[in-house]
Write a structure and sequence with these properties.
- The complex is a heterotrimer of chains A (145), B (188) and C (469).
- Chain A is mainly alpha-helical.
- Chain A is built from five helices and two strands, in the order H-H-E-E-H-H-H.
- Chain A folds into two domains: 39 residues; 98 residues, Orthogonal Bundle (Cytochrome Bc1 Complex, Chain D, domain 2).
- In chain A, a hairpin with a 2-residue loop joins strand 1 and strand 2.
- Chain B is mainly alpha-helical and 188 residues long.
- Chain B is 80% helix and 0% strand.
- The termini of chain B are far apart.
- In chain B, 40% of the residues are buried.
- With 469 residues, chain C is mainly α.
- Chain C has a domain of 160 residues.
- The radius of gyration of chain C is 22 Å and the shape is globular.
- The relative contact order of chain C is 0.09.
- Classes of the chains: A mainly alpha (145), B mainly alpha (188), C mainly alpha (469).
- Chains A and C meet through helix 1, helix 2, strand 1 and strand 2 of A and helix 1, helix 2, helix 4, helix 7 and helix 8 of C.
Chain lengths: 145, 188, 469
């Protein structure tokens, strides 16, 4: 009776455990959804912001930058860039607009995307919206991102 | 007299699972104790909103159910399948009582708008008790499966590892509550 | 090779290795861009190189998984593959779609690619690792479904083993969770929340089932240990994987606008995530120690043991390093993440695919069980070169990450991102050198396929028991 270790029991634990913890994960997801409205800054989610998100996506900004810490680690965090640029969408637009076409010798440089004024406004508004998302403990730790 | 044995009863696989579960609970309990020490006042204040009477009923329900499970194992050791199934059924009934009482408690808190994000105390209270709540359900499913098999004559006095496996899991669920109850409800 | 249809795996493996080479070349380009910022600018901006690097990785690992499945499923099911023509057709569709996508990344600006592929109809592009045009994603779904069909039907019609069952669950999960790639809400928090259902539930969930199944298959074949023993441990290990890994998703939900409770749930469960990897290491070494035969393919056994160790180090130890919320608060989105990512992917997934290739390729190329000793020696050299250089890549990135975390996030006078990057450039140079050594190892790996092909193959050494001798 002592040394029992059966395959069927191992299998039951795999199936039972997986289902159990997936259900628990769904429950926590449900609880997260209850909380999203109070943190996700959806009030600021205008049509301009939505279009800005498309600009963000179609230029693969995440391929160099992080946004709320996720993305590539080649260029600065942008989840708080609005605050870092003195709460100014104008400063963001001016920065994107002024990137040199051929880059900076020996240095990393953001490409010149030739965005229209409208598109610049949209992506800047998107970054402003992103900065309004309430991250836990006000992540990132400081303004440098 | 029980014969002495080196291995724990039941299947080794369930013991691996039980160890994993207990370490998760242990980590959660440690986190609770650590955070409580940092926010003593907050924890004491909101602890008073918990219904200790309900929790006491639940403690008794689980202890009783564990006793029934012990009787079920004893019954199958003597080869009595019917009796084993009946004791298991009684244990499941006690589990159901636990779920009902606990749901009443949740109903009370949720109707007052308490969520995981209300404050750190409620975060721990709901996390710990809900995680345990799901374990009670899981344990009841396991006991039901064992009871069905026992009823169908699937175990004998010599071969009943399944009963011991289910019993081991149920005792773990009980054990966790016995730590949880004083830690979350009683300790001031 | 017992069944003729197993040979479709060869196509998949050859493509996997070719794409692997491409992945590493672009990795070196990126590594250089880290220190010489204008390298290849503006022709190949960093983001384009990175898309190629990461997408090639994913695609070649998928080729590797598919090839592994096509090889091991007939053998386990004891029957020919259902519809091998479908496997061949899907190979070419996947390869052409993959090549066209990579060409798209490199030849036209990304915004143009989005426009050309009409991304506005169903916007899914521009999210990390899911940069593929929507039409490519749909292609992936078609390929995955056809693949699941031929694998699933073969398994259902043949002998069912735990290995094939676990593999099938893993592959089905892979297909199912990929569907979240099509969910791209305007709400950034929701977008990020469900993006992880693809990324985390792949690499820290269902992919680990695939890894476990392939590893179990190789161990059964090379050690001769009783299948029952290996299979029940496989169940226990993958059970632990999902028990810890599902809620472990929470370690990505600390700082993205998700509720605070995830810091506790994520920390506690992901702190347990090294356990299944540790069990896998113990398991693999135990099985090899209890072997009933000395398989002549020493290289394959080396890869299998290597994956067990490196997956534990990369995914387990380096994951644990920054998984607790108070630590992650400072390290989130720094080079620490990159360090962990590199070793975890190499240890868990690159090495298991290479182990399977190493085991299966000799048979598909007409050997009875193994390559010639000279070929195996070259292959084992490539193993050590790649593995050791990956350890160094990880260590250098960890050094860079610790400094970055301190200078940019922790010190009293935090510095700008780019100022910090300049200060830690030495580590990036060292990383690049380690990367070059990795490439040399990879070249040797390719060379090993052409060395000693005319030599007789390695034979099984019959072990002489010391006491009876």
């Amino acid at each position: 009776m002592s040394e029992t270790f059966t395959k069927s029991m191992a299998r039951n634990i795999f199936y039972g455990g997986s289902v159990f913890f997936f259900l628990l994960f769904l429950a926590l997801t449900f609880a997260s959804h209850q909380d999203f409205p109070s943190r996700d800054n959806h009030e600021a989610l205008t049509e301009t912001v939505a279009k800005g998100k498309r600009i963000w996506e179609t230029h693969d900004c995440i391929g160099c930058h992080t946004l709320l810490g996720e993305g590539a680690y080649f260029a600065p965090e942008l989840g708080n860039v609005y605050e870092r640029f003195g709460n100014s969408t104008e400063a963001i637009k001016a920065f994107i607009k002024s990137r040199p076409v051929d880059g900076v010798p020996g240095r990393r440089s953001m490409p010149q995307f030739n965005l229209s004024d409208e598109e610049l406004e949209q992506v800047a508004q998107f970054l402003k919206y992103a900065s309004g998302i309430k991250t836990a403990n006000n992540w990132p730790p400081n303004i440098k991102g | 007299m029980m014969e002495k044995r080196k291995q724990p009863p039941g299947d080794l696989a369930i013991w691996i699972f039980i160890c994993a579960e207990l370490s998760v609970f242990a980590a959660f309990f440690a986190a609770y104790a650590f955070t409580r020490a940092k926010h003593l006042e907050l924890f004491n204040r909101y602890q008073q909103t918990l219904n200790t009477d309900y929790a006491l009923i639940n403690t008794l329900a689980l202890i009783t159910s564990s006793y029934f499970v012990v009787r079920a194992v004893a019954a199958i050791r003597e080869g009595s399948q019917r009796s084993c199934a009946r004791w298991l059924l009684a244990a499941i009934a006690m589990g159901a009582l636990f779920l009902v009482v606990k749901s009443m408690e949740y109903q009370h808190h949720f109707s007052h708008g308490v969520t995981l994000s209300t404050n750190t105390f409620y975060m721990f209270y709901i996390s710990l008790t809900f995680f345990h709540f799901m374990h009670v359900i899981m344990g009841m499913v396991i006991l039901a499966a064992v009871a069905l098999k026992a009823h169908a004559g699937g175990y004998t006095a010599e071969r009943h590892a399944g009963v011991e496996t289910g019993a081991s899991y149920w005792h773990m669920v009980d054990l966790v509550w016995i730590i949880l109850f004083p830690l979350v409800y009683v300790m001031r | 090779m017992k069944y003729k249809s197993q040979s479709v795996a060869k196509l998949y493996f050859v493509a996997a290795i070719a794409l692997f080479v491409g992945q590493i070349l672009f990795g070196l380009v990126m590594g250089l861009q880290y220190v010489i910022g204008d390298f290849l600018f503006p022709e190949i901006p960093f983001n384009a190189a990175r898309m190629v690097h990461t997408n090639l990785l994913i695609v070649w690992l998928l080729f590797g998984f598919m090839g592994s499945a096509y090889y091991l499923v007939p053998e386990e099911s004891e029957r020919e593959l259902v519809a091998p023509w479908l496997a061949k057709l899907m190979f070419w569709i996947f390869l052409i779609a993959g090549a066209a996508t990579v060409a798209g990344y490199l030849l036209v600006p990304y915004a143009k690619l989005a426009e050309l592929t009409m991304d506005d109809l169903l916007p899914t592009m521009g999210r990390e690792f899911l940069e593929q045009p929507t039409v490519t994603k749909l292609g992936i779904v078609v390929v995955a479904l056809s693949f699941l069909f031929s694998i699933g039907m073969t398994i259902l019609k043949g002998r069912k083993t735990v290995v094939t069952l676990v593999l099938l669950i893993g592959l089905t999960g892979l297909a199912v969770f990929f569907l979240f790639a099509f969910y791209n809400p305007e709400n950034l928090v929701l977008d990020k929340y469900y993006w992880w259902w693809v990324v985390h539930l792949w690499v820290e969930g269902v992919w680990e089932l695939i890894l476990g199944a392939i590893l179990a298959f190789i161990l059964i074949k090379t050690t001769g240990v009783d299948r029952e023993v290996i299979e029940k441990w496989l169940y226990v290990i993958i059970a632990m994987t999902l028990i810890t890994g599902l809620i472990g998703t929470g370690h990505h939900y600390y700082w993205i606008g998700t509720p605070d409770f995830w810091q506790w749930w994520g920390s506690i469960f992901s702190a347990m995530e090294p356990i299944p990897f540790f069990m896998m290491t113990i398991f693999a070494f135990n099985m090899v120690n209890r072997r009933r035969r000395n398989h002549p393919n020493k290289a394959a056994v080396l890869w299998a043991l290597g994956t067990a160790v490196m997956a534990f180090l990369g995914a387990g130890v380096w994951g644990f390093l920054h998984t607790l919320a108070p630590v992650n608060y400072y390290t989130h989105g720094t080079q620490i993440t990159a360090a962990h990512g590199h070793m975890a992917f190499y240890g868990a997934y690159v090495m298991i695919v290479l182990a399977m290739i190493s085991y299966a390729m000799p048979m598909m190329r007409g050997r009875k069980a193994a390559n010639s000793p000279s070929s195996q020696v070259v292959e084992m050299w490539s193993f050590w070169l790649m593995t050791v250089s990956m350890v160094f890549i990880t260590l250098f990135l960890t050094g860079a990450g610790i400094l970055q975390t301190y200078l940019q996030r922790y010190s009293d006078q935090p510095l700008d991102f780019m100022t910090v990057q300049d200060k830690i450039s030495l580590f990036y140079w060292l990383r690049e050198i380690a990367g070059v050594i990795f490439l040399i190892g990879l070249v040797l790996y390719v060379v090993s396929f052409f060395v000693g092909t005319d030599d007789p193959e390695a034979v099984e050494k019959i072990e002489v028991d010391a006491e009876t001798a």
